[in-house]
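Can't paste images in this forum, so I'm doing it all in text. The chain is below; anyone willing to post the predicted structure tokens underneath?
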Amino acid sequence: MVGTQIKKLRLMKGYSINELSERAGVSKSYLSYIERGIQKNPSLQILSKLAHTLDTNLEQLLDKNDAAISDILDEEWRDLLESAIREGVTKEDFRYCLEFLKFKRMTDDLK
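Text version of the structure:
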């Protein structure tokens, strides 16, 4: 779970929840919700801020020991994902692009 990993990395850095919140620019209550597993789906932008502040990357934050994530996200995928996050692409934008590509493929198959 991402909240457990964030808390583990935060404690390893010696940060209090207040300190990580201030350094990352994430509200203390939201960070607490993530760490406690109440907020199970934080945005990629929030995760990117936390990863940067914790001197790690998204793979580490998402727990690189999770085989499913490691198998899916090779280096090129990680680079693309991190680039999209830096450019401000939201999960909604990403979903929209996927739906558009599915639609385009479907219409191309009909030709």
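The two ends are 44 Å apart (CA to CA). Helices lie at 2-13, 17-24, 28-35, 44-53, 58-61, 67-72, 75-86, 91-110.
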